[in-house]
């Protein structure tokens, strides 16, 4: 059991948190891929145990989970520095506070390995400001799926601001893939160089000394 690297228990109607709490310490150092999507009897404690123990995780899918809270996702982010894929689409309890470690710079985002983030179905609980900040601060991000219900005008405005701030036309919107913001792979080297040499990227979260608006009012559309 200690060598288990992949665990897929998607849509297991009878799964509860008890076996996960027992399993978590045994697979703590080896588990790389975890998919517990649509296992709706698993309580928050089960996810928290996995988040605290499974620090080697690279791929995490918790789609349409009823008990996944902001604190659960924050704990995974804080304890799993190797995350490359995070799919939390359709989790009804989540807000943008789930992504707070990346948004509020609780951790050094320049060290993040995240490439793919799926937040489909979380609108309007994840603001345009939050999406923009993620694009600006996560150096390896290649895709953020916003979902088919996301306002296309807002998505295009996010891309415009992200590209302006990075000095490169890096991001574009793939409508065919549920309004996914994609990063151009041809500019990866330039973007990584830019991130490494900028102590602080421009962001709509920045407070202007001459402007008393809060961050929620800073995202404006033409």
Structural class comes to alpha/beta
Rg on CA atoms, Å: 18 Å
Spatial ordering of strands, largest sheet: 1-2-3-4-5-6-8-7
Kindly state the percentage of residues in helix.
25-40%
**Order of secondary-structure elements:** EHEHEHEHEHEHEEH
InterPro entries: FBXL15_LRR, Leu-rich_rpt_Cys-con_subtyp, LRR_dom_sf
GO cellular component, one term: SCF ubiquitin ligase complex
Pfam family, one: DUF7885
Protein name: F-box/LRR-repeat protein 15-like leucin rich repeat domain-containing protein
Q: Can you describe this structure in just a few lines?
A:
With 222 residues, the chain is an alpha/beta fold. The chain has helices at residues 17-23, 44-53, 70-79, 100-103, 128-137, 152-166, 188-196; strands at residues 6-8, 33-35, 59-61, 85-87, 116-118, 143-145, 171-174, 180-183. Helix 3 (70-79) links the parallel strand 3 (59-61) and strand 4.
Question: What is the strand and helix layout of this fold?
Answer:
Blueprint: E1 6-8, H1 17-23, E2 33-35, H2 44-53, E3 59-61, H3 70-79, E4 85-87, H4 100-103, E5 116-118, H5 128-137, E6 143-145, H6 152-166, E7 171-174, E8 180-183, H7 188-196
Parallel strand pairs: 1-2, 2-3, 3-4, 4-5, 5-6
Antiparallel strand pairs: 6-8, 7-8
Helix pairs in contact: 1-2, 2-3, 5-6
Describe the structure.
- It is a single chain.
- The chain is an alpha/beta fold.
- The chain folds into 2 domains: about 1-95, Leucine-rich repeat, LRR (right-handed beta-alpha superhelix) (Alpha-Beta Horseshoe); about 95-200, no CATH class.
- About 30% of the residues lie in helices and about 10% in strands.
- The protein has helices spanning about 15-25, 45-55, 70-80, 100-105, 130-135, 150-165, 190-195, and strands spanning about 5-10, 35, 60, 85, 115-120, 145, 170-175, 180-185.
- The protein has an 8-stranded mixed β-sheet, with helices on one face.
- Strand 3 (about 60), helix 3 (about 70-80) and strand 4 (about 85) form a beta-alpha-beta unit.
- The radius of gyration is 18 Å and the shape is globular.
- InterPro entries: FBXL15_LRR, Leu-rich_rpt_Cys-con_subtyp, LRR_dom_sf.
- This is F-box/LRR-repeat protein 15-like leucin rich repeat domain-containing protein.
- Pfam families: DUF7885.
- One of its GO terms (cellular component) is SCF ubiquitin ligase complex.
């Amino acid at each position: 059991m200690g060598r288990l690297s992949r665990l897929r228990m998607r849509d297991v109607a009878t799964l509860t948190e008890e076996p996960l709490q027992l399993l978590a310490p045994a697979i703590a150092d080896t588990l790389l891929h975890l998919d517990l999507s649509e296992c709706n009897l698993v309580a928050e404690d089960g996810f928290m145990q996995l988040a605290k123990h499974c620090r080697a995780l690279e791929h995490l899918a918790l789609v349409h989970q009823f008990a996944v809270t902001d604190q659960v996702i924050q704990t995974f982010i804080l304890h799993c520095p190797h995350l490359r894929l995070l799919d939390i689409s359709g989790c009804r309890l989540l807000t943008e506070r789930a992504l707070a470690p990346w948004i509020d710079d609780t951790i050094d985002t320049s060290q993040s390995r995240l490439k793919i983030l799926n937040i489909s179905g979380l609108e309007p609980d994840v603001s345009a400001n939050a999406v923009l900040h993620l694009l600006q601060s996560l150096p390896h991000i290649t895709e953020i799926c916003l979902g088919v219900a996301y306002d296309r005008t807002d998505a295009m405005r996010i891309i415009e601001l992200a590209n302006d701030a990075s000095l490169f036309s890096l991001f574009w919107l793939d409508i065919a893939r549920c309004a996914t913001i994609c990063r151009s792979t041809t500019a990866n080297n330039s973007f990584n160089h830019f991130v490494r040499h900028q102590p602080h990227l421009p962001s709509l979260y920045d407070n202007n000394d001459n402007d008393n608006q809060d961050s929620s009012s800073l995202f404006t559309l033409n």
